[in-house]
Amino acid sequence: MEDLQSLLEKINRDGVEKAEAEAKKIVDAAQAKADALVKKALEEAAQAKADAEKAAQASSERAAETIRQAARDVVIGVKGTLTALLEKLLVQDVDKALADEKTATALVAEAIKNLTGPGEIACGAKLASALKSQASALKSFTLTVDDSLGAGFSVKTDGGRVEHAFTVETISAELAKRLRPDLAALLK
Q1: How far apart are CA 176 and CA 170, in angstroms?
Q2: Out of 16, 90, 117, 119, which could bridge 157 as a Cys pair, Cβ 3.0 to 4.6 Å?
Q3: Closest listed residue to residue 153, CA positions, set 119, 184, 176, 179
């Protein structure tokens, strides 16, 4: 009986040891699988983080470029608005200057000063009246009334082949063209 008891204990011990060894294998395999899953999850998380950082950087760069473009558009808009405003004021000032008979007659005299006649000066009735009173300043130029010129005038020479227009529009356009570079420099 003791032999049987010892045999039973040995079988029991062998069974327990075998079960423990099998359990250890199962636990080790589960641990290895868990470690592999954790490692894969960490790698995927690191990749997701890198992708998110890359996307955030790209988004930040696009936002910065959008802001730069918006700022540029605002500056262009402001420049355009200021230029239009200044050109409008310039037209008003030129119109006012040409409406002044003294200034307009001085401009006519300056315009024809170095020209040889015969020629023609066309202007509105009001300016024509003022110029007739200074007939000596007209040299060999004939005076015609053309109210379509507004407050300005035109000078024709060489049988009408050469014409110089001194209207509000032409003078304002020329002044604006000369002032634009200075205005652009001020707006930078």
Answers
A1: 10
A2: 119
A3: 119
